[in-house]
Design goal:
Layout (H helix, E strand, L loop, with lengths): L1 H18 L10 H29 L1 H19 L6 H33 L2 H32 L3 H4 L1 H15 L13 H21 L13 H21 L15 H35 L7 H8 L1 H21 L2 H20 L6 H28 L6 H32 L2 H11 L4 H8 L3 H9 L4 H6 L10 H8 L3 H33 L13 E4 L2 E4 L11
Antiparallel strand pairs: 1-2
Helix pairs in contact: 1-2, 1-5, 2-3, 2-4, 2-8, 2-15, 3-4, 3-7, 4-5, 4-15, 5-11, 5-12, 5-14, 8-9, 8-15, 10-11, 10-14, 10-15, 10-18, 10-21, 12-14, 13-14, 13-21, 15-21, 16-17, 16-21
Length: 558
């Protein structure tokens, strides 16, 4: 439920913006669009360590159960947006932040609860199912967003309510805390410097994607530069604080564990590549491939999600199997192989033409999904198995922070690379193409010089950008019927942008392959780890051997 909501809004954005009567491509409204995407992931990246630590102190199940209630409450209020325009968008952004708080309480503690509940020889399989559930929710949200928003934009939030209410009641009645609590105090200064520092850095990414002072992006914006500098200073202060306080928010000593450190670094690299690839593939399908194959712009969000199903299927097939195998063969080989296969799929995508054969594309994204599954389950098992029992909540939160930060950063990195690739040739190509269809030179030049980010978001939102960009000038009304049909048809813009877009694709996929190689190297450096134990009737919990019980309900188990 938590992961699904990170992606379901991505596909439903066109219907949401129509529902609150807001033009998403107006110059001042790009920020609303970015915050609808980024705000949720930013909050999750910042909070998961804190709520993981609270789980260690006060009970992981207690925090986990509260997460269901907070998430469900926010979902109800999201569906009752009483405002229009910018105020309506701000209502949604604000309650998405609250929703992300509930999601953080779920994701930070779920892996820790499972690690407590399962013996070591079954832990990889259990955490593999957990990872599959989370990442499958991310991919399924792409399809669910298209289906539900076609009925009513509010339905993308309604879908959480019955699930959230049922499992809030189920969790309170069923789950029992069996892990050790660490006690201690809240590290307020550590929480503040970490939260504000990471928030400032990720907010700077949002400003960096918006045009500034005649530039295609905002990386020259003093505000973005100041936020990055200030965020890095606060994060450095956070490290200094954690080395001095008696009850730190993060035990920096955990990074002395090779499996913990290199597992998290590998996970960060993979999450940056995975998140960025997801956005790029959506834009490729919605903005170019689907219109060229006869799909209306209004239908492309839904069909983009459907055509990406092989990615989900590959992940669902490989995730549990790799978790099961990691219990018997160890994590390092599987995770390293998954990272290398992940990079190979990027190289394959880089070689595809813009107007590709779908079956080759489907095979490549299925391989990418399998690679994700091969990597995710063993990597999580390796990380969580390397930490003491009383620190599993904060360790789970730190793992989620690396993953969520990578996803948030990926949007900025991949969009920046794509925009840089488009900026060199798109203005001239767009201007010349419009003039060839009879658009006046001054109007064609004005449209051609608009920031490429507008064209990218138009493609992502399933909007015909040519019609949208020419309407304010009234130029369409003065053209012949044949010229109007050509400009506003399915093929003009995709054919026009194909060349510049392919240049950007080569850059971003090459970068993704490099990230995968770095992840494979980090995975190798984690060490072989302890050998898998033969299953037995008793397991170690803390310092004593205890009878095996059902770790979720606390009842004895044979």
């Amino acid at each position: 439920m938590s992961a699904l909501d990170g992606s379901i809004v991505l596909i439903a954005l066109p219907a949401i913006f129509r529902g609150v009567h807001l033009d998403p491509l107006a110059p001042g409204n790009i920020a609303y669009l970015l915050w609808m995407i980024m705000g949720y992931r930013l909050v999750q990246a910042v909070l998961v360590v804190t709520v993981g630590r609270l789980g260690d102190m006060y009970g992981r199940v207690r925090i986990y159960n509260s997460g269901f209630a907070v998430f469900s409450f926010a979902s109800i209020l999201l569906s009752f947006d009483p405002f229009d325009g910018g105020h309506g968008a701000m209502w949604l952004i604000a309650w998405r932040v609250v929703q992300a708080v509930g999601g953080s309480m779920l994701t930070a503690n779920s892996a820790a609860i499972l690690t407590d509940a399962f013996p070591k020889e079954q832990r990889g399989f259990a955490l593999g199912i957990n990872q599959v559930a989370g990442l499958a929710g991310m991919f399924i949200g792409l399809v669910a967003g298209g289906l539900l928003s076609a009925w009513d934009w509010r339905a993308v939030f309604w879908v959480n309510v019955p699930v959230g209410v049922f499992f809030t009641v189920w969790a309170y009645r069923t789950l029992r805390d069996t892990g050790r609590r660490g006690g201690g105090r809240i590290d307020w200064w550590g929480n503040i410097t970490f939260g504000v520092g990471l928030s400032a850095t990720l907010i700077a990414v949002t400003f960096g994607l918006q045009p500034y002072d005649g530039h295609t992006m905002g990386w020259t914006n003093p505000l973005a530069d100041g936020l990055i500098a200030g965020g890095l200073v606060l994060l450095a202060a956070f490290v200094a604080i954690e080395n001095r306080v008696s009850a730190p928010m993060i035990r920096l000593g955990l990074f002395r564990q090779r499996a913990f450190t290199f597992g998290n670094l590998a996970g960060l690299a993979i999450s940056i590549g995975r998140g960025g690839m997801q956005f790029v593939l959506i834009i490729w399908l919605q903005g170019i491939w689907l219109p060229l194959h006869g799909y209306d712009y209004s239908d492309t969000p839904l069909w983009a999600g459907i055509f990406m199903l092989p990615l989900t299927a590959g992940f669902l097939a490989a995730g549990p199997v790799s978790g099961y195998l990691s219990d018997r063969l160890g994590s390092r080989g599987l995770a390293t192989g998954g990272a290398l296969l992940f990079g190979a799929s990027f190289l394959g995508l880089m070689l595809l033409p813009i107007d590709f054969s779908y079956w080759i594309f489907a095979l490549l994204i299925a391989v990418n999904g399998i690679a994700n599954g091969m990597f995710a389950s063993p990597n999580s098992s390796s990380i969580m198995g390397s930490v003491p029992a009383d620190l599993r909540g904060v360790a789970s939160g730190m793992r989620a922070t690396f993953q969520n930060s990578g996803t948030a950063v990926s949007i900025g990195v991949f969009f920046s690379l794509m925009i840089a690739g488009l900026a060199g040739s798109l203005p001239h190509t767009l201007t010349a193409g419009l003039q060839a269809q009879g658009v006046p030179a001054h109007v064609a030049t004005q449209v051609g010089n608009l920031p490429p980010v507008s064209s990218l978001f138009a493609a992502q939102l399933g909007v015909n950008p040519i019609q949208h960009l020419l309407q304010p000038s009234g130029s369409l009304a003065h053209l012949t019927a044949a010229q109007q049909q050509s400009l506003t048809g399915r093929e003009f813009f995709p054919s026009l942008i194909a060349g510049p877009f392919h240049s950007g694709l080569v850059i971003v996929f090459a970068f993704g392959a490099v990230l995968a190689l770095l992840a494979a190297i980090a995975s190798l450096l984690r060490g072989a780890g302890p050998a898998a134990r033969t299953p037995g009737p008793r397991r170690a919990t803390g310092d004593a051997l205890t009878p095996v019980t059902d770790g979720l309900t606390g009842t004895p188990r044979d």
